[in-house]
Amino acid sequence: MAQRMLSSIGATPRATLFARGRSEEEGGITREQSLNSDTRRRSSLPDFLKTVTKDKREGKKLTEFGKWYRTHSRFYFKNRVEGDEGVAPIRFRDHRRQLVFKEKFVSKGGEGQTREYTAVENLLIENGIKRVESARESLKEYAPFPIISYLLEYDRRSSSTNQSRVFVDADLSCSAEELVAYRFDEELWGHSGSKMTVFDETPHSYKTMVVLPLGGFFQERELLMFYCWKKVSETMWVITGEPVVDERYPINDKAVRGQFYSTMVVYVTSPTSCSVKHCMSVDVVLPLPRFIMKGKSMEEAEWVAHIKVFFVAHKSKDNMGNAEGGILGEYFARGFKGTSDWEKVNTKWQEAIEEFRCMNEMIEVYPWFEKIVKHVLINRLVPWQPCGKCLDDVQVDDAERVGKSLPFFVTMRSDPDMALNEWLLEFPCMTELGEREPWFGSFMLALARRLGSGEGRILRRQSLAFCRRQESVMPGVSPRLSIKGSRVQVPRISTMESDNHVIHVGAEGNFIMATMQKFLGVPGGKSKMNAAIFFGYLVPAIVFILPLNNAWLGADENTMFLFVIAPIILFFGSQLLMGVCSAAFKVFLICEDLPYREAHLYRAKFAIATYLALAIPVFIVFWAVSFKIIFPVPWAVLVTLFFTPLCVVVTYFFVKYTCKNPKHLIQPNEFKRFLLIVIFVIPFVAILPLSTGFYILLKGYKQLALVTALSSMRFLEVFGIEWLGLGKVNELTILVLELVIDVFYETHAATLFSGADLGITLAFPPLLDLLGNLGTMAYIYYFQRHDKNAQTLSLIALATREIVEISTSLGVTVVFGSIWLFRKEHYFMIDTVEQHELERAFTMSLIDFLTEIVVLLLFDRVVYSVWRVHLYDLAQAFARAIGFYELFGMICGCVIFILTFLMYHFGGDYFMNFEWMEMDDFDGWCAAMQRNASSCYRTTGGWGFIND
Question: Where is the signal peptide (predicted)?
């Protein structure tokens, strides 16, 4: 058992004296079990050690002291090593241990210079010790739970040295006698996979030499040690090690003889704990590279970290304290690092709990405790659910909700201590458990610190996993909690830290932003977003090049339009509305609580409900006019847009009566505000396509004035959405509405390339986009630095706007060109375009596309240097949050809606002709409206209605 536990944290397998001294019922292994596997080692056990073992089993103190010789582990190095700045392969014994150490460099003049940093050893060891190459920079990470304090000294006058010194300071949860026995037994049994020769055995001493396998490219150093230990007083033990210089043993005559000095002082702080001061010096005679000396020195001291875990594993839950709970939590957090699959967690859990007696006792008393720890270790971010039960009433289902909630609180808080405090306040049963088991708080705090570190955030990649923590724009830890009395307060952040410029999510929008943030860095997100955008333009191209001759005209030719084109246009228009309503009504959160298949089925039902809510009123209008006036007639389309609020109301009630979790429903006040914003957006959506006909008829600087006016309208529209929505609706809704505005405007601007009369008019929209993005970045940095939430929203909007500008500049022109090649006679604006104008539009769109890519790369570098996030990664995370299908529906719906109007010419003869107002009978009114609509068609021929 002890062998498995220590090998799981990277230590070499060993059978310890303390484990052999315990009975099987107490969690240890018998002396016979550990010795029967190797008769050679069993015969080498001296008599005095047998006496010590017997006394320990009987509860007697260790009164006999012995001595032993030991061959120190040899140094291996390649003949060719890297330079001073490089790091060659190093042999480490531990692969999951974080060490905090200092390096003291001695200059030529003798003046010391000290440099402090932390090191994280993440070296995968499966079978024994492997050589691992690791870069120097990868070691400079924050270690939230240092196992041992480390001070390493060596000569820095050259790239190689022959002397190194190490000092270790640690507190252990074991008695001094147990520590001495553990140390002795480690020296005797710690050489795994090696041939050990025992000779010169006496009742109170013995000498051993260990032969390790050698390679052709390695040399060795041989360090023969003489150890002794003394009990100076009742509160202090001393273990010393000195080199043996008077004897030479025939193991390897070519080995270089070195010297090893070690002094370990053990202070007794209580009957069950002690403090260790360990000083070690190595002199290998011939120079070795510094990194080898460092690795060997660290290897000599890491047994302190091993023993911490070992003695905690044998304690019962009643004997556990805060220190033991912290070590136990750190062991579990590191042992489950990178595991988010439930089956793997179960497998590792069964292996881990076998090593720890306290965990088995906790599961016996609290069967649901296992469920809590598993869900914390799997580290998936889901909405937390309250549980007000007391400890005795907690069931397995309640434990699942409690365990899933801790990653959420850690995500929302920058301080793991405060996150744990809030978690305990929200769940009284956990507070009561902490009162019964004092070590539970430190155990959960160690897990919370691991969840809040960079490795913990990377662990949230899978499924509903969280995005990586590597100084991202939204680490989800903005509000720091402060406790005043018994109430937790969440203050607003009013300043930006100038040292890292990392912005955070505000207190108002934590939940929505954190929901989106979990997709940062998720593999496959960018490719899926690209696919959604690609099909968003491919589908309109296919729809508009279908051979539907005369389908767009009125009178007797409307059957094809009525039963084919109109349903298609209405469907994709409804999917545009579905994406907006999905973000506003939090459909994505509802689907997270459902199984995979049921979640997709619910989204399909929501899409169908949105389509029917929009299509049924439109076809009622068709039926009311006896199908004599068929869409798209511009006045009728404007009326149809005002069916959108009705569709929003229908989808709201659909979600309200189908959602099983009331927490996901928006409040009535929020719904009313969202409905108001939708009504505010409708006029802009209607004006853009209607202005297309005016643009093609204008000449010179009048076109430039129209483009400037539309750009100003876009700015005012975005400003109005934020003014109406911030603080009233969730931030994701605001971002989706701004995305719709951007897609509509950029799609419309891309269709104007071919109709530009002047070069400045052709280049003006891309130039406005560039100036707008520069202004946005300056505004974010200089004017929003005191509002982290607004800063985050602006960065997301900037990222999505850049992606929209890149895609529309080329995508719309490709659709435009496809129509021109196959069905240009169906569309007024496309049919009136000359070939050289179309070629000029293609050239401009390609230049705009390449320019936008360069701008995106430059902006990405600037944003990453300031806010530590990539714009493209931020855009794909936003696309995942709203759904890739919803993104496809938004783009496809906008393109179809805009290009539908390219067949019409809306001049004064249409808007200023009020003949239909003078008709008294219904048939006359329909005929007047039909004649009025026919004035919009201007084609080259082959049509029933032609205006010359």
Answer: none
**pLDDT(19) > 50:** no
Q: Note whether 699 and 766 are same-domain residues.
A: yes
* Same domain as 455, residue 576: no
Residue 640 domain-assigned (yes or no): yes
Flag whether pLDDT at 107 surpasses 70: no
335 and 284 within one domain: no
| Cis ω before 668 (30° cut-off from 0) | no
Q: Which two tokens stand for residue 76?
A: 């291996």
Helix (H) or strand (E) holding 290: helix 290-301
Is 133 a residue whose pLDDT tops 50?
A: no
Q: Angle at CA 454, nearest 5°, toward 794 and 860?
A: 35
Q: What is the pLDDT of residues 871-903, one digit of tens each?
A: 788 888 888 888 888 888 888 888 887 777 766
**Is residue 626 one of the residues assigned to a domain?**
yes
Is the same domain home to 275 and 410? no
- Write out pLDDT tens, residues 227-244: 666 677 777 777 776 665
Q: Is 635 exposed, middle or buried (0-12, 13-18, 19+ CB in 10 A)?
A: middle
Task: Give one word for 61, left, alpha or beta, with left for phi > 0 and alpha for psi -120 to 50.
Answer: beta
Angstrom CA distances, 303 to 12, 170, 190, 234, stand at 10, 11, 11, 24
pLDDT tens digits for 339-368? Answer: 556 666 777 777 777 677 788 888 888 888
- Number of structural domains in the chain: 3
Query: Residue 625's beta-bridge partner residues?
Result: none
- The alpha carbon of residue 730 and the mean position of all alpha carbons in its chain are separated, in whole angstroms, by 22
**Residue 591 confidence (pLDDT):** 81
**Cβ atoms within 10 Å, residue 199:** 11
Q: Is residue 23 part of a domain?
A: no
Contact (Cβ atoms closer than 8 angstroms) between residue 788 and residue 504: yes
Say whether both 248 and 325 belong to one domain: no
Q: Decide which of 466, 495, 519 is a domain's last residue.
A: 466
Inform me whether the pLDDT recorded for 338 exceeds 60. no
Buried b (16+ CB within 10 A) or exposed e, 459-495: bbbbebbbbbbeebbbbbbbbebeeeeeeeebeebee
Is residue 497 in some structural domain? no
pLDDT at 486 over 60: no
Nearest C-alpha neighbor of 450 from the set 163, 142, 224: 142
- The verdict on 623 and 716 lying in the same domain is yes
Phi, psi of 88 (to 5 degrees): -85, 170
Both 287 and 361 in one domain: the answer is: no
Residue 206 and residue 346 in one domain: no
Please tell me the distance from the alpha carbon of residue 21 to that of residue 29, in angstroms, as a whole number.
8
Query: Domain containing 232 — which CATH number?
Result: 3.30.530.20
Q: How far apart are CA 504 and CA 792, in angstroms?
A: 7
Range of the structural domain that residue 83 is part of: 60-313
Nearest to 280 by CA among 172, 152, 171: 152
In 587-700, which ranges are continuous DSSP H helix? 587-592, 596-624, 634-641, 644-658, 668-697
Give the pairing of strands 221-233 and 236-243.
antiparallel
Q: Which of 444, 466, 488 is the last residue of a domain?
A: 466
In angstroms, the CA 249 to CA 618 distance is: 99
> By three-state DSSP, how is residue 333 classified?
helix
Sequence-ordered list of residues with C-beta below 8 angstroms from that of 851, at least 6 positions apart, any chain: 766, 770
Cα angle for residues 730, 733, 737 (degrees, 5° grid): 150
Concatenating the DSSP letter of every residue in 472-513 gives -S--S--PPPEEETTEEE-PPP-S--TTT------STTHHHH
Q: Alpha helix (H) ranges present in 698-730?
A: 701-725
Q: Are 599 and 605 in contact (CB under 8 A)?
A: no
